[in-house]
């Protein structure tokens, strides 16, 4: 077999390092082995690249040359048969069906709900009260997805879904995600049994909602769920309730956690710098008085702040594949059966692309444009995050709504990034104190 890039050799140690301190692991990998390396994981050899050209080679490879890496771990988060767990032609077919709700005018229509929910959730905070911003942003993104994607209008039903989903998120611990030998029910007790019960509860709620919607589909509102339930494949067939349920869970899981974390980090970086906050408020103040939240999408400095937030802690920090056929990456021939990964956080912290990469400096996105393999917060290629545009819009709308209407103070100016699920979140939740409401 052709030689692979060098790297550390102790699988358990490296898996634990990556699981508990991902940002530290990325830096350690680069310092000791460079930008392309091999790590022996519990799933077998994994070739990692943190180079833009390596990312291009991996992410533009023939889709038939790879399959899902460690699918049994991803099944803790996504449903079998949903977009994140299929490859090749089935993936193309399903993605094509799901893409229309995330395009054009439909996307702009979601902005109003995003703003309303942000104002409601933040408006419930009392002046002088200290809150974990990450918890508030989770509440915002959960409700936005339940209303815009699941099509829920009734407040009590939204609350039931939220309660079920929070229970599932709490039960989906990093240990269960990374260590398959912990996934045993033990007679109905323990963390895995708790996870299965939470999973079943959410599935039952979704099934109830879909059955009710399907029974009166012609009179249903023209929302994202309606579009999912009425869209047709090329052969004229549509998704069953079971398939719709799988995709809804995927959209909820992927969109909720990643976007909520990005919003929390955006608040942290913005309110940490008086100069950034001043520039952002000046730009927002320049909007016409009758401008709706969809106008935020065209603001350059707001876009730069959001991009810099996504650069430092990208929502999709790592993209994994398992090879069905050999591919070439950075001069190495990677064999079938090996794992391969693009670590976007490593790319985003390259000094040659982003001088002083640990410094939050939005202006870098106004000074130059980056290629899709230099700035890669949502992945790239045929498996780019399906809801990337939805997430980007929600980050802009919610951050702008908070900055425009609430004067906050950071209670913990030195926040620490830690592993939270598959992403990197703030250890202390970005604790902020509401100084005053600026609502007109």
UniProtKB/TrEMBL annotation:
It comes from the Bacteria. GO terms for molecular function: heme binding; iron ion binding; monooxygenase activity; oxidoreductase activity, acting on paired donors, with incorporation or reduction of molecular oxygen. The keyword Transcription does not apply. The chain crosses the membrane at residues 248-271. Keywords: Heme, Iron, Membrane, Metal-binding, Monooxygenase, Oxidoreductase, Transmembrane, Transmembrane helix. Belongs to the cytochrome P450 family. PANTHER family: CYTOCHROME P450, CYTOCHROME P450 12A4, MITOCHONDRIAL-RELATED. This is Cytochrome P450. It comes from Hyalangium minutum.
